[in-house]
Amino acid sequence: MSIETEVVAALAPAGDKPDDHFFRFHRPHLHLSNVFGNDWFALKAEEFARFFGTPVFLVSQTFFVAVWILLNVFGVTDFDVYPFILLNLAFSLQAAYAAPLILLAQTRQADRDKCHAQADAQHREDLHHESEAREIQANKNMDLLMEMMRQNTVLTENIKALTERVERLTSDVHKCVAEAKS
Q: ∠ at Cα 91 (85, 97), nearest 5°?
């Protein structure tokens, strides 16, 4: 599976909720095309360029060069005797194709990295806006709570005043009843 196929598969919607996938913030950038396109040549060139950096390539090339030199040095064959001009030509040809393919792969990777960086930056910006909105709501809630506490204090003071007045009136009524009986 190619890298683009893996990325598209990873970014595809997963489930009913839009936020149940890790790459959900990268989906808006899927429409961006690469500089070199997504045709078979660009994809194969990138895969080939990636192969140049693998241990398999390095070991197999080392083995091939060692066999080439040993066959020519020990006289098993004499198609490329010392100073191995044909081998140098093969290396030059390989370098002539490898360098542009590696640059192609780097350019495509840079495009992907840029898209991911933009998606990450947008996500951070969205988080910042959400955080600010939560802070504003928390401040509103705090103001409302303070107002409710102030009103509660006023009500408590009114209840205390009314309770004291009821106690005085009750005391006055008891005095009046006691005077009336005597």
A: 140
